[in-house]
Design goal:
This protein has 563 residues and is mainly alpha-helical. The protein is built from 26 helices and no strands. The chain has a single domain, classed as MFS general substrate transporter like domains (Growth Hormone, Chain: A), CATH 1.20.1250. Helix 6 packs antiparallel against helix 12 and helix 19 crosses helix 21. The radius of gyration is 27 Å and the shape is globular. It comes from Rhynchosporium graminicola. It holds the Pfam family Sugar_tr. Keywords: Membrane, Phosphate transport, Transmembrane, Transmembrane helix, Transport.
């Protein structure tokens, strides 16, 4: 019986489409793999939590630090520790989930990280102070755990979208996923405004944080719990879909090395079904027959070191990780301290605590709506025409110029000019490296290491975010007087902007190490397609060695039989 006949399963294509038989006549498993993956390219077309804490820390100060020493303001050390804790957990999640998604599969990990986020979010909302442990310590613990879940979401969301998307619109689809970060920022700010308005009567009883006691303090305690706890709502809605998502065909092909299952999954995906169901006997037989002939190397630590030990591959990982690191130093240094920028331009203060909270929420809404959200969606609409590398390089150049202007002309700029420059910076973060650093690592690495490499790149970025908070947070207030207001409260802010300009310039240089991934298949970017610039002959060589060994063993068996 021929191999094609063995690969076929019973069932006609008229009454019920048999996905398995579409490629059963092709004996070469590598060709069957390429044709099946080509079908995908013919198809039609947790960040709330990170930024919500920016609005919550001032509320925590009123509830838990309203004493003679702190006067309703959270100590800088506690403020920094709470913000950094999420990034610390995110690093762990990005590295851990990134690796596990390559080892056990995308499907098994996708959803688990969301369960962690939901659990940790609800735990934070129910946290309270005690004599045994401070509220700061408890919140840090739960935010580290939540950060682990958020970290897992980075490589999984990017890689799963990348491996399911058609080549033509892959960038737009991945960018649309990442643009939810802007929606998360917007939701956090709008919810803060809603709860502030809801507790208006209680908040108006106090002139400032120090005077916010009794009824006002109780209202603020409820407010921060609502803002944090609300983050679990969209997670619960999305959980079902994540737990029922099928495994990506590319992972099934290249890592699980199950050509039959992957082929049926592709055809099922094209027909709007969750997954394919091949004949199990044919599937097991095919796996045994095709495994030695598959060109794609099996993932291992030795192969990982060999792959990235080559400069043509190693430089790409260096480019994605380096660009993300330099970006996040400035991005999170500003993003988690929007209130500092608002204070510098005079958008703070008020006659009552209600006005103070209201101004802070509206100010954050202005920054998000004017710069962040438009930047994300301009990027979505242009990413597949301008290209990832072009947008990233352009973004770093413009950000370098903007930070130089803010840093060196800080004291000469009016409040409106400073706001305009800051909004422009937010726009070109999103229509620039903040989007592309998420997208490119999900495309340019081979399937067997795609999630691990994306996780490593993203973790490099979060290390930059930690540095921004730990180093530049205290540096910002250097030389400030105890009761300083507005720009005087952050006398070193101009120097920090100058340093950020240097980081943007470094990000520009590392951007030249990454490839342009626009309109290229993932297989072409991984070096598996002969005749393309990225083609890696070692892959074909491995396949030839596998065929040669199989043929030589066959000759030996035939020789023994003839004797």
């Amino acid at each position: 019986m021929s191999s094609a006949a063995m690969n076929k399963t019973d069932g006609g294509n008229n009454a019920f489409h048999n996905f398995n038989n579409d490629f059963a006549h092709i004996q070469d498993p590598n060709e069957r793999r390429r044709l099946a993956l080509a079908e995908i390219d013919k198809a039609s077309f947790g960040w709330y939590h990170i930024f919500a804490i920016n609005l919550v820390t001032s509320m925590l100060g009123i509830v838990y630090f309203n004493d003679k020493k702190s006067h309703g303001t959270i100590p800088p050390s506690s403020d920094t520790a709470i913000k950094v804790s999420t990034s610390g957990g995110t690093v762990i999640g990005q590295l851990g989930f990134g690796y596990l998604a390559d080892v056990v599969g995308r499907k098994r990990m996708y959803g688990l990280e969301l369960i962690i986020i939901i659990f940790a979010t609800l735990a934070q909302a129910l946290t309270s102070n005690s004599r045994a442990i401070s509220i700061t310590g408890l919140i840090i613990f739960w935010r580290v755990l939540m950060g682990i879940g958020i970290g897992g979401d980075y490589p999984l969301s990017s890689v799963i979208t990348s491996e399911f998307a058609t080549t033509k619109w892959r960038g737009a689809m991945m960018n649309a996923v990442f643009a939810m970060q802007g929606i998360g920022q917007f939701t956090a700010a709008i919810l803060a405004l809603i709860v502030t308005t809801g507790f208006k009567g209680s908040l108006e009883s106090a002139a400032n944080a120090r005077a916010c006691t009794a009824v006002c303090q109780l209202a603020v305690d409820k407010m921060w719990r609502i803002i944090i706890g609300f983050g679990a709502v969209p997670g619960c809605i999305a959980l079902y879909y994540r737990l029922t998502i099928p495994e990506t065909p590319r992972y099934t092909f290249d890592v699980a090395r199950d050509v039959e299952k992957a082929g049926t999954d592709v055809k099922a995906y094209m027909n709007g079904k969750a997954e394919g169901h091949p004949d199990e006997i044919a599937r097991v037989t095919a796996m045994a027959q095709t495994a030695p002939a598959l060109e794609i190397p099996k993932a291992s630590f030795k192969d990982f070191c060999h792959h990235y030990g080559q400069w043509k591959h190693g430089k790409v990982l260096l480019g994605t990780a380096g660009s993300w690191f330099f970006l996040d130093v400035a991005f999170y240094g500003l993003g988690l301290n929007n209130s500092i920028i608002l204070a510098a331009i005079g958008w703070t203060g008020g006659a009552t605590q209600y006005e103070i909270f209201r101004k802070n929420a509206i100010g954050n809404l202005i920054l998000v709506c004017a710069g962040a959200i438009p930047g994300y969606w301009v990027s979505v609409t242009t990413i597949d025409t301008l290209g990832r590398k072009t947008i990233q390089i352009m973004g770093f150049i413009i950000l370098t110029i903007l930070f130089c202007i803010i840093g060196f002309a800080y004291h000469q700029l009016s409040g409106h000019a400073l706001l305009a420059l800051y909004v422009l910076a937010q726009f070109f973060f999103k229509f620039g490296p903040n989007s592309t650093t998420f997208i490119v690592p999900g495309e340019c690495f081979p399937t067997r290491y795609r999630s691990t490499s994306h996780g490593f790149s993203a973790a490099s970025g979060k290390v930059g975010a930690i540095i921004a908070q730990v180093v530049f947070g205290p540096l910002r207030t250097r030389g400030a007087l105890p009761n300083a207001k507005g720009r005087n409260a952050s006398p070193w802010l101009n120097h920090i902007m100058q340093i950020f300009a240097l980081f943007m310039l470094c990000g520009l240089f590392t951007s030249f190490l990454i490839p342009e991934t626009k309109r290229k298949t993932l297989e072409e970017l991984a070096g598996e397609v002969p005749g393309t610039p990225n083609f890696d002959p070692a892959l074909i060589g491995g396949a030839h060695r596998a065929y040669s060994e199989e043929d030589s063993q066959g000759e030996k068996h035939r020789g023994v039989d003839s004797v």
